[in-house]
Amino acid sequence: MAPKPAEKPNFAFAFDIDGVLLRSKEPLPGSRETIHNLQKLKIPLIFLTNGGGSTEEEHAAKLSDRLGVDIDEAQFVQSHSPYRDLVPLYDNKRILVVGGTGNDIRNVAGAYGFKDVITSSDLFLEQPSIHPFPEVSAPYHNANGRRIPDIRTKEIAAILVWSTSREWTLDMQVMFDLLLSSGGVFGGKSDMAEDVALYNKDYLQDQRPKLYFCNPDLVWVTDHDRPRFAQGSFEAAFEGVWNRLTQGKAKLKYTTFGKPNKKTFEYGERHLKAYYEKLYGPQEKVDSDWPVKTVYMIGDNPESDIIGANSYVSRDTTWKSILVETGVYKAGTEPAHKPTYYAKDVAEAVQLALEKEGYSNIGRQGGLKEHNNIEGRSTKQGHSSRTVGIRMPSPTNNDGGGRNSRVLQDRTNTAGSIEAIAFHFGKLKLLGHETVKPLGNLEDLPNQFKESVPLHMS
Predict the structure, then answer these.
(1) Which residue stretches belong to region Disordered (predicted)?
(2) Which residues fall within 8 angstroms of residue 172, CB to CB, at 6 or more apart?
(3) Is the pLDDT of residue 452 over 50?
């Protein structure tokens, strides 16, 4: 049963977005209702996404509009959200930002607090010859670049990739040039480069810019029939070019945020704690005795969502992963990293978690598969299927295991229509609004359920 309003939940959710709640910009089935119902129950949740390109406030507003629910920017953790922690480090220093279109990323960096921000378009405007093939994109860079008076004299302290580059050739060229520059100054190469007497052949020494990426995902799901390249592919390509051009003399040094990295999950948990306090007020000893003991990470990508949640070791919270089949992961395939649970979609995933926590069903019904390494179940394929819903203890056996002991009740959604009906009685299963041929006799049901449960059978 659901807790009383005064009770505080001891679990929470972290949702990926693309491939879980949305496909491209369109909501996936059940996502609207699922988030709406969780918020109605005041169950804390955050959106932990490797997407980005705008401020958390802007992104929360977009997701609110697409899902038709109110989402607080405090619930939003993007791939580049941890860059906020870098602002004190680069307070008045110059940074180069990469990714996005126009001046969007420049503006996001400014909103975060970075005071001196330049783009590849600015560098192109200063010296067009830096682009090996400018004929296609020159008009774009001329329109979006800005004249920076000291662009050839002031050090660029860091290169921050915020989203997938739209101009791989120019961005990779500029990044490579700066990493071989003297003191991070545009236009010159270090005299110490490739000095065999110096550590790491002097590559990435001589006060050159620090390099940051924030999304290791190689691909993401769009409305195309196959996944498309994401920032992780750009990162891999740049590292590959670096290794070839430096002939393997020096390993590329950089920092990556975003799932599955530990720092991103730490950052996400920190914001989840803050949002919990926003819902329920300040907690005593929140850092050492946080009420939330379990966080369910729901994602579609085994390489980021699943391994990230599985690997993250929190001081006071257990993270569990639920892999859905609506994005990168395809049903029937063997994921590189096995989740705690499998589910068809986000509604089913949340329903499973709620059942584990003793809450009522708020999602659509469906078969759920659990990884036998977690639950101790053993099947030939390593998965098991079952119907999940509200447990109603039988007054005769206290849900002690008889096959009549689990009868699942119907629930009405906010529109007033029946959202789901499910029975688990012998071999009888009714799911959703389906009319099915009965495999058992209605007369065999315990009397206390005959009047309380609406049945329509053919």
Answers:
(1) 363-408
(2) 165, 234, 237, 238, 241
(3) no
Containing 190, the helix (H) or strand (E) segment is none
Beta-carbon contacts of 3 under 8 Å, excluding residues fewer than 6 positions away, are: 9, 359
Element (DSSP H or E) covering residue 105: helix 104-112
Q: Are 35 and 69 in contact (CB under 8 A)?
A: yes
Give the tens place of pLDDT for each residue, 200-229: 555 555 578 999 999 999 988 888 888 899
Q: Which of 246-250, 283-287, 290-294 holds the top average pLDDT?
A: 290-294
Query: 3-state class of 270 per DSSP?
Result: helix
Strand order in the sheet with 294-299: 76-77, 45-48, 11-15, 294-299, 318-324, 341-343, 367-370, 385-387
**Alpha carbons 113 and 269: distance in angstroms, whole number:** 22
Task: Give the pLDDT band of residue 4 (cuts 50, 70, 90).
Answer: very low
Enumerate the H helices of 153-261 as residue ranges: 168-179, 231-245
Signed CA dihedral, 432, 435, 439, 441: sign only: positive
pLDDT at site 453: 37
Q: Exposure of 286 by Cβ count < 10 A (0-12 exposed, 13-18 middle, 19+ buried)?
A: middle
Look at residues 357, 48, 328 and name the one whose alpha carbon lies nearest to residue 214.
48
Burial of 348 per CB tally in 10 Å (0-12, 13-18, 19+): buried
Contact assessment for residue 38 and residue 279, using Cβ atoms and an 8 Å cutoff? no
CB neighbour class for 281 (10 Å; exposed up to 12, middle 13-18, buried from 19): exposed
- Output the six-digit token pair for 244: 């070839």
- The more confidently predicted of residues 396 and 357 is 357
C-alpha distances in Å from residue 393, one per residue of 355, 408, 449: 14, 10, 12
Q: Could you give the CA distance from residue 452 to residue 440 in angstroms, rounded to a whole number? A: 18
Amino acid occupying residue 341? Y
pLDDT at 337 over 80: yes
pLDDT exceeds cutoff 60 at 419? no
Distance of CA 210 to the CA centre of its chain: 25
Q: How confident is the model at residue 184 (pLDDT cuts 50, 70, 90)?
A: confident
Beta-bridge partners for 119 = 97
